[in-house]
Amino acid sequence: MTELVEHGQLFIGGELTDPFGKDVIEVISPHTEEVIGRVPHASREDVDRAVAVARRAFDEGPWPRATLEERVGVVTRIKDGIAARHEEIARVISAENGSPYSWSVLAQALGAMMVWDAAIKVAKDFTHEERRAGVLGPILVRREPVGVVAAVVPWNVPQFVAAAKLAPALLAGCTVVLKPSPESPLDAYVLAEIARDAGLPEGVLSVLPADREVSEYLVAHPGIDKISFTGSVAAGKRVMEVAARHLTRVTLELGGKSAAVVLPDAEVQTAVSGIVPAAWMNNGQACVAQTRILVPRARYDEYADAFAAAASALKVGDPLDPATQVGPLVARRQQQRSLDYIRIGQEEGAKILTGGGRPAGLERGWYVEPTLFGDVHNSMRIAREEIFGPVICLLPYGDEAEAVKMANDSDYGLSGSVWTADVDHGIEIARQVRTGTYSVNTFSLDMLGPFGGYKNSGLGREFGPEGYGAYLEHKMIHLPAGA
């Protein structure tokens, strides 16, 4: 993707429509720092129009009243459309946000397709209506679509997160206003085309690229029944505050500072080869990244050398080069944020084991070297605050109890992993760590299970029946005796 991509209209209710305002979002390449795309900046008036269209489609249209089989048919075509265009989607996202192309193919595009596919399976297996024996007589319990959904997605994995919200919402019978980030709106247009070609009815989906101010207007809109938001803790708290005005239902998937616990019996190379891609994935711009690596103090030097060597070997460069493993950060502010935390870590007394600045030979682009800090104490800011860049901490621990305590000593609780020769013992550790997802001797995110966080990492769950159920209301119907 080298030529300028320009969209002059907004996708509202399934149709390309002229925006009310004249403001434009310029998409800047993190690699070249040049403009690669332009799209309209949605205004409040555009939000009003999109919500009104979605409201009418939900209250009067065919989508919520269609059979599950009919909705599955449309959503399956959306999934197939993503599969057919996955290479294009991967290139667009890599150009927008700097994600390495090889990772974009697997996680940004095919990963999104897998989310759609898993949601279809969950919806087919879900019990939408059941009879129960009540205390006073028989009852019928129904699960019905919650209504109009505002889906706010971030720039780091835009298609994957959009799928996590859109797939269950659409299958449940909801209508959706999707708000992509201003850093990554181009792939959302591809998704809009796919949804339109799949036969999604009029009014069911709108796509409104916009900044934080317009996003707040959307989530505060009285026509919205449900908000699904992925982003920072600060923004999530604001969403929850604004949603309270109308008691709008919310799902919040927020930040993380996840710990990979390496037990004394782990094999060094197995742990290193498994943790490194989970720590520096997507240039460190992943909420589930294993950004704190806990290793036995008795073997600290051995692990420090091994992790530093692996990190320093990561290939940094053009995100569209298939050989690149770490690309540029999404924006200059994110680059500066990582560099600021590198300075803070040094001031706190941590030691840079590898990296620590801009890569040599990459003067243009928002690059930061894969950086590993050693001699880190869990009280340091670099160990407590989400950096959202390629800056990782190596922390020594004394015994297993201390390792578990350190893993739990965080304001976050989104992800984590344990590495050990004894899988059953690894499961015991997993049960002790207060985090929403956990892995033993691997790192993965399964779309058929619930994903979300404890503490400041969020509220509610995505994926699996738990995530699907977030787009449904429960209704109890009392029946006469003998019915």
Automatic annotation (TrEMBL):
Keyword Oxidoreductase: yes
Keyword field: Oxidoreductase
Family affiliation: Belongs to the aldehyde dehydrogenase family.
The keyword Oxidoreductase belongs to this UniProt entry's keyword annotation: yes
UniProt xrefs under InterPro entries: Ald_DH/histidinol_DH, Ald_DH_C, Ald_DH_CS_GLU, Ald_DH_N, Aldehyde_DH_dom
Organism expressing this protein natively: Streptomyces broussonetiae
Occurrences of domain Aldehyde dehydrogenase (ranges): 24-477
Pfam families reported in the protein's UniProt record: Aldedh
A molecular-function term among this protein's GO annotations: oxidoreductase activity, acting on the aldehyde or oxo group of donors, NAD or NADP as acceptor
UniProt-listed PROSITE patterns: ALDEHYDE_DEHYDR_GLU
Residues annotated as catalytic: E253
Annotated protein name in UniProt: Aldehyde dehydrogenase family protein
Source taxon at top rank: Bacteria
Gene3D superfamilies: Aldehyde Dehydrogenase, Chain A, domain 1, Aldehyde Dehydrogenase, Chain A, domain 2
